[in-house]
Design goal:
The chain is mainly α and 148 residues long. It is built from four helices and three strands, in the order H-H-H-E-E-E-H. It has one domain. It is globular and about 50 Å long.
């Protein structure tokens, strides 16, 4: 199967976020409608739900295009994605007034305060999760589809 490798890379890349985002949506529905948490989560969840599968797909296509030149393992390539997503997400959230930057931390939705010291472990955990997801899930799908 050597036809349409970029289409197969697109589909393999979108697999993981397409499975995980409905779980996040379920959590949102439970928080907002069942527990009636008064935070306006919908402002911060709709845009990423539309954009993240596309970015994972394009990132996998970029790996397919560049892997012969860079010889970068897919796990390392996948772990680089949060280095782009988190700053871009923070910039977008700041511009949409979802996130406020302070001297010692950030404030989400005008009411949830997170110190900067907590952001570093979360960022490192995201790198680890992305590394593992790309190594085991996306890498497996790429091999199964014959593009790795």
């Amino acid at each position: 199967m050597t036809t349409h490798p970029y289409l197969r890379a697109f589909l393999a890349g979108s697999f993981v976020p397409t499975l995980i985002l409905p779980l996040i949506l379920t959590g949102f529905i439970v928080l907002r409608l069942v527990l009636q948490v008064p935070f306006p989560f919908e402002r911060g969840i709709v845009f990423p739900m539309a954009l993240v599968p596309l970015l994972w797909s394009l990132w996998n296509m970029l790996w397919l295009c560049s892997s012969r030149r860079t010889h970068l393992p897919i796990s390392v390539h996948g772990a680089l994605l949060p280095l782009l997503l988190m700053p871009a997400g923070a910039l977008l959230a700041t511009s949409m007034h979802i996130l406020s930057l302070g001297a010692r931390g950030v404030t989400w939705f005008g009411s949830v305060y997170v110190p900067y010291a907590w952001i570093v472990p979360v960022f490192l955990a995201a790198l680890a999760v992305y590394y593992l997801m790309w190594k085991y899930v996306v890498g497996f799908l790429n091999r199964t589809l014959g593009i790795a």
